[in-house]
């Protein structure tokens, strides 16, 4: 028999888990579906967030926080440097823990959370909309019924596409990114670094976000139509210029 819920949330990233948590707190029967076997994995961001950005939605907990950021260094194309100080600028999170805890909070309030549940299509209700989702779980198809579906499955959401909305992006609307978690580097654990310029990251910037005083997320984002080079190629050029010693 198909299982029924008041609402189904597709995607257990921070947005999906917060939606499920908010609904569950109101007494809504909600199902939160995550296609990966583990929430928070694989990592798909640089893990930095402002204090105000986090405080708006959830109270920070120490186990989520890798480092607390108090200053930012901006480096121009001509190597001019600007240091910005702020006592409560932001955090570099441990997203693996952060994402899991948000989903656990939703579950503790009554949400049903399922991993390894890949939504493959929406269930149509004649011409009047959609009444659920079809899911692959351990190689088997299963259907879940609902009145409301929330697509929290990323910037080019498949849920949105299946519902008839255009979630595709043009090449000039996206950034191509690459990132390494580097070890054995020398960084200030409370300082973010940003590097600008066409030679570094055309149409974007490079970043160094410390996870400790010896590890950092180091990456860059580019506008693809600004350069023939790939983001990873530019990152491989940037890393040895910034660090004399490092381990990927």
Automatic annotation (TrEMBL):
GO terms for biological process?
A: phospholipid biosynthetic process
Give all residue intervals belonging to the FAD-binding domain: 6-167
Q: What is the lineage of its organism?
A: Bacteria, Bacillati, Saganbacteria
Q: Which organism is it from?
A: candidate division WOR-1 bacterium DG_54_3
Is Flavoprotein found in the keyword set? Answer: yes
In alphabetical order, the GO MF annotations are: FAD binding; oxidoreductase activity, acting on the CH-CH group of donors, NAD or NADP as acceptor
**Swiss-Prot/TrEMBL keywords:** Flavoprotein, Lipid biosynthesis, Lipid metabolism, Oxidoreductase, Phospholipid biosynthesis, Phospholipid metabolism
Digeranylgeranylglycerophospholipid reductase catalytic domain sequence ranges: 174-246
Q: Which PANTHER family match?
A: DIGERANYLGERANYLGLYCEROPHOSPHOLIPID REDUCTASE, GERANYLGERANYL DIPHOSPHATE REDUCTASE
| One Pfam short name | GGR_cat
Q: Which InterPro entries match?
A: FAD-bd, FAD/NAD-bd_sf, Geranylgeranyl_Rdtase_fam, Geranylgeranyl_reductase, GGR_cat
Q: What is this protein called?
A: FAD-binding domain-containing protein
